[in-house]
Design a protein that fits this description.
CATH superfamily of the largest domain: Alanine racemase
Number of domains: 2
Bound molecules: pyridoxal-5'-phosphate
Number of helices: 12
Largest sheet: 9 strands, mixed
CATH architecture of the largest domain: Alpha-Beta Barrel
CATH class of the largest domain: Alpha Beta
Radius of gyration: 23 Å
C-alpha cells in the first residue's frame, strides 16, 4: 500500500503530480511520500504491538536521508547503524543514543569510541575478536558496553546471494556451534555487559519459513545459554522482510510476521528487538526520470534511454533486480522496449524486452519501489554527480537532499603542484 497513484491520468505522489516536481527540481530525482513512510512504520508497529516491549530500530542503511530518519524518529523508532557515519545521522535525526544498535563486522576502534560517547543502547558484536577489542576500549574508559552477540544460524534465507547473510560461509556473526563458548568468554570481560543474542539472515525475504527456522534455532541457543547460567535479557531478531517490486507479487505481511514471532518467542521472557529497513521505506519512494530519446535497435526492441542510470539506482545492475517502470502520463498505448541509462557500461540496463507504457523523448516515467537501497547506493560514476531527493507531504514537497553537481565533486579534487 502506497500513495503513488494516478489521478486524472497523471501519476501523483500523495496530492502532488510528479510532473510538478520534475519541473521544479529537474530529473532524475528520488521522491518519497511522507504518508507512505508513516503508514508503513505504523503497520509494522501495530503488527508487533502484542509482543512484550518490542524495540524497533530502523536499519538506516536502507534509506539514511535525514528527513526520512526524522519521520522514523517521530514514529518512535530507534536506529540500527553499521558505521560511524550512520550513527551520526541517527543522532542528528534526534534519536536517543539508548535507542541505537550498532551492527557490522568491521567496527573500527574510533567507531566503538563514538558509540560509547553517544551512550548507544547496544553493540551487536560479530566476532570474538571484536568483543575483546570493544571490552578493552570500554574498560579503559571505565565503561561497560551493552552487547548482543550476533549469531550465524547457518540458515539459507532463499534470497539473492549478495544479500544473504545467515549462511555459514557468510562473513556475519559467530558460528552457531561456538556461540555458548564465545558468549561465556565475553561475559567474563570487565568492559562488556553481555545481554543477549542477535540474528539477521538476509534481505528481501519472500517467505517466513527461513526466519522461523532461524528464530527457532535462536530460541534453542537461548535455552542453552540460560542453562549454562548466563543472563540473557534481549533478543534482536534483525530485519529482512521483503517487499513486492512487481505489481501482483505477494509477500508475507507484517501481521503474519508478528504472529510468527509471537508463536516462536512466547516462552522466551526477553525483550525483543527488530531492525526493519526495506519493508518500511521500499515502496515509499520512486525514482523519477525523463526519457532522453528512444533509439531503434537493429534486431530487437528499441532502447528507451532515460536520464537515470546505474549510478543513481544500482539494484538492477548489482542484483539483476526488477523495478516496475511506469509513465507519469500514460497515453494509453504500450510498447516493448529495453530501458537503459546513459552510462558507458552494458550493465547500465534497467530492463530488457519489457512491456511498458509507450514513451518518447521528453516524457517522464518512474522506477517504483526505489525508497530502499536506492539513493543510498548512488555513486558518481561517469562524473554524473548525485541525484536530488524530495519528500512529499500532501500537496507540498521539500527538497530533502540537494543535487550534488559534478563541479562540486571536482572542487574537492586537487592536481599536485609537481604535476603542474
Ligand atoms: C541490512 C540489515 C538490516 C535491514 O535489512 P532489511 O532487509 O532492509 O530489512 C537489519 N539488520 C542488519 C544487521 C542489517 O545488516
Amino acid at each position: 500500500m502506497n500513495y503513488f497513484e494516478y489521478r486524472d491520468g497523471v501519476l501523483h505522489a500523495e496530492d502532488l503530480p510528479l510532473s510538478a516536481i520534475a519541473e521544479q527540481v529537474g530529473t532524475p530525482v528520488y521522491v518519497y511520500s511522507r504518508a507512505t513512510l508513516e503508514r508503513h512504520a505504523q503497520v509494522f508497529k501495530a503488527a508487533l504491538a502484542h509482543l512484550p516491549h518490542a524495540h524497533i530500530a530502523f536499519a538506516i542503511k536502507a534509506n539514511p536521508n535525514l528527513a526520512v530518519l526524522k519521520v522514523m524518529q517521530r514514529e518512535g523508532f530507534g536506529a540500527d547503524v553499521v558505521s560511524g557515519g550512520e550513527l551520526a545521522r541517527a543522532l542528528l535525526a534526534g534519536m536517543p543514543g539508548e535507542d541505537i544498535v550498532f551492527s557490522g563486522v568491521g567496527k573500527m576502534p574510533r567507531e566503538m569510541v563514538q558509540g560509547l560517547d553517544a551512550g548507544i543502547g547496544q553493540f551487536n558484536i560479530e566476532s570474538e575478536e571484536e568483543g575483546v577489542e570493544l571490552a578493552a576500549i570500554a574498560a579503559a574508559r571505565g565503561q561497560r558496553a551493552a552487547c548482543a552477540l550476533r549469531v550465524n544460524p547457518d540458515v539459507d534465507a532463499g534470497t539473492h546471494d549478495k544479500i544473504s547473510t545467515g549462511k555459514a560461509e557468510n562473513k556475519f556473526g559467530v558460528p552457531y556451534d561456538r556461540t555458548g563458548e564465545i558468549y561465556a568468554r565475553l561475559a567474563r570481560l570487565e568492559g562488556l555487559e553481555m545481554r543477549g543474542l542477535a540474528v539477521h539472515i538476509g534481505s528481501q525475504l519472500q517467505s517466513l519459513d527461513p526466519l522461523e527456522t532461524a528464530f527457532t534455532k535462536m530460541g534453542d541457543l537461548l535455552g542453552q545459554l540460560r542453562a549454562a547460567g548466563q543472563s540473557v535479557t534481549h533478543m534482536d531478531l534483525g530485519g529482512g522482510l521483503g517487499v513486492p517490486y512487481r505489481a501482483g507479487e505477494v509477500f508475507p505481511t507484517p501481521e503474519e510476521y508478528g504472529a510468527m514471532v509471537g508463536r516462536v518467542t512466547k516462552d522466551w521472557d526477553t525483550r525483543l528487538m527488530f531492525e526493519p529497513g526495506r519493508v518500511i521505506t521500499g515502496n515509499a519512494g520512486v525514482l523519477l526520470t525523463e526519457v532522453i530519446r528512444v533509439k531503434r535497435s537493429s534486431n530487437g526492441p528499441p532502447f528507451v534511454v532515460v536520464d537515470a542510470a546505474m549510478n543513481d539506482l544500482a539494484r538492477p545492475a548489482m542484483y539483476g533486480a526488477w523495478h516496475d517502470f511506469d509513465a507519469v502520463q500514460p497515453n494509453g498505448s504500450r510498447m516493448v522496449a529495453n530501458i537503459v541509462g546513459p552510462i558507458c557500461e552494458t550493465g547500465d540496463t534497467f530492463a530488457m524486452g519489457r512491456d511498458i507504457d509507450a514513451l518518447e523523448a521528453g516524457d517522464l516515467a518512474v522506477f517504483r519501489t526505489a525508497g530502499a537501497y536506492g539513493a543510498t547506493m548512488a555513486s558518481s560514476y561517469n562524473s554524473r554527480g548525485f541525484v536530488a531527493e524530495v519528500m512529499v507531504d500532501g500537496d507540498q514537497f521539500a527538497v530533502v537532499a540537494d543535487r550534488i553537481l559534478p563541479a562540486q565533486i571536482t572542487d574537492a579534487e586537487r592536481v599536485p603542484e609537481w604535476l603542474l
